# Entry
Amino acid sequence: MEDQLAENDLVTDLRTAMRGATRRLSGAPVTPLREQLADLVAQSEPWLDGYPDFYGDGLVATLERRVAELLGKPDAAYFPTGTMAQQVALRCWAAETGNDVVATHPLSHLELHERHAYRDLTGLRGRWPTLEPRLPTAADLRTVAEPFGTLSLELPLRDAGFVLPDWDTLAEVTAAARERGARIHFDGARLWESAAHFDRTLPQLAGLADSVYVSFYKSLGGVSGAAVAGPESFVAQLKEWRHRYGGQIYQQWPAVLTALVGLDRELPRLPEYVAQAKTVAAAFAEAAADFPGVHVYPELPHTHQFRLWVPFSARTMRAAVIGQIEDTGLGLLDRWAPGQAPDSAFSEVTAGAAALEWEPAEITAALRDLLTRARSGGSKD
# Structure
């Protein structure tokens, strides 16, 4: 118990230290609420003369139309959370197909981060075409003996390292699912930045699926919220179930404004972030050459996010980050989680606007310094 309390204190200390960093590489910006509100007002000028939404009209409807247009779908429904959006979408497809089986992945968000809501709240059943740390292939689907009504694909598969298949593999697996009479659902919490990997437009990518879930805070900088796009009749069902699940909220304009701002400001920059992630990963790899057991995955990131693996404990890395900030003002990586092997850890690296301000040599030098501190137990040599 004491060890856990000490660990929690260290996590809190790391968050506090990152707020004081003079320069950050990865992670969401840490700014006071007053500054965030002032920025939101400045960026929301086109909508400020309008009126608040009431139970899904106004700005909510505006955002829904915008998302449908961006993804090339007939309609879209806004949800306060992605977990709600996912389970409502899957249960609606199950009702339409008459099949309660969902083909998904053991590392998917459905299984690891939503408390199995699709199963425990909707009564659906999951089947795993593959256990490999990648998206399933058409051949994998053909090994699933039981008929399934929906194939849910998380793009990218975050807990495998933000990995994506190539375009032909994705097209083949969706075609194989349709051959079996299944609907295709994209868990696209990070879909916005995935189009660059495929060298396709968002409508081309979304066109492979019957429904697409997207998030407004994971890559676009919104405070919360999600949407599911698809056929008009399907979206009408989503909105019925949204109300039943408690998602028909009286007013949601603060979150919706941040989503609209994100679509205007961040969405056009995501290809630039994806390109910078490759630069950051290469700079990290150069530093890692001096530290056995340190590596980036994927070596060439598929999106603007990837993982850095180290042969040190998460506790050691947090202490090293805090020490580096105190000595240099540089806040390199803000989150560390334990790896599967003893005394190993990983960080999820996000190349956003802050990362664009770093030169490769600066990144390499900063990571070398951080790893040197970790090798010394979290302190500077």
Summary: The chain is about 45% helix and 15% strand.
